[in-house]
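Format notes (please read before filing issues)

Several people have asked whether sequences and structure tokens are stored in separate files. They are not. Every record keeps both together, in the order shown below: the sequence lines, then the token lines. Line labels are part of the format and must not be stripped during preprocessing.
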Amino acid sequence: MNLRPLAAKLGITIILLIVGVLTMSFIQDAGHGQKEEPTHTENAQDESWQTEVEKEEYNAGKKIIEHITDSHDWHILDYKDSEGHKHHVSIPLPVILYHDGKFHTFMSDKLWHGHVYKGFKLATEGPDKGKVVKVIEENLINPEIITKDEGEVDHLPLDLSITKNVLAIIISSILLIIIFVSIANRYKRREKQAPKGLQSLLEPLIVFLRDDVAKDSIGEKYERYMPYLLTLFFFIFFNNLFGLVPIFPGGANVTGNIAVTGVMAFFTFLITTFSGNKNYWQHIFNAPGVPWWLKFPVPLMPVIELIGMFTKPFVLMVRLFANITAGHIIILGFISLIFVFGNIYIGLGYGVSIVSIMFSLFMSLLELLVAFIQAYVFTLLSALYFGLASEEHH
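Then the structure lines:
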């Protein structure tokens, strides 16, 4: 069995998919949540890692949302020094904005804690919370945010920033390309020899997807779809696993971002649509065996079938997004119980921590299984759609 051509095509397909995912992530405004920080009105910049003196009550909902949404920095940890000052340790990420015909680039730490830089700031409240917005610089003491209001010109800059999810996609994509290019080269050097190293680890998965997913679902024409199906599976699987790692470069909720799942579902929709043969379109607009009164005068069945073309990729998008996000929320919810009860009474926090940690470990192990299952289900359903579109009837 020679998988070298397949592995080589897989690398190219990964690049094409990543371009689409990154493009949609760039233009997606929803979900760019950003941590609220204390607002400083003075112009002088503080150090990259700022402090908070005031003690604030633990907000479980806020903390969970911060962990599952995208942001312009990669938060590492919080800690308090001997004087009780709270420090935020984060990795600033590049901010790339297009406004008034010009590009503006700088690191996101310039906008931390409500600071205004080059006329831009991070909105900490309102409908544009978490987004980079343009401000009126004449009154920096109390800057007025220019946002998109009804009937007014849209002053929100085009945000092409390298956010947390975008960086996580780049890291996982580079890793995937390195892995599969090295596997392709090894097949070339060790042709007709037993698999070794990464070959022996990933070849069973590749063969499983080929024989039990693509062949069974698509049929004789399965080979043309294999690079895309393998790209889908390993991209979802790797990012699901990275999302379970709590430290950098893990912890990003890539497959829990509906823009990412939407791009993959859209690609599946395009391939299904352009793969459709005569029989596929006939079953949509003039299904054989359906009574004429369901087709005329009201084309009930064609309308249902046409809607089904769009609901199938929509379900793909929502299923992956909802399952991955729900898993993260459940784990973070159990962890948050420790701090919620700890704020009531320190003994309660220690008591609840035993149960919370046990359930969190159980959910983490379950998430490992879900990481594989969701990648498999997305790939299997995509293959089934391709098979239905290209099926020949004799």
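For reference, the curators noted about this record: The radius of gyration is 25 Å. The longest strand covers residues 73-80.
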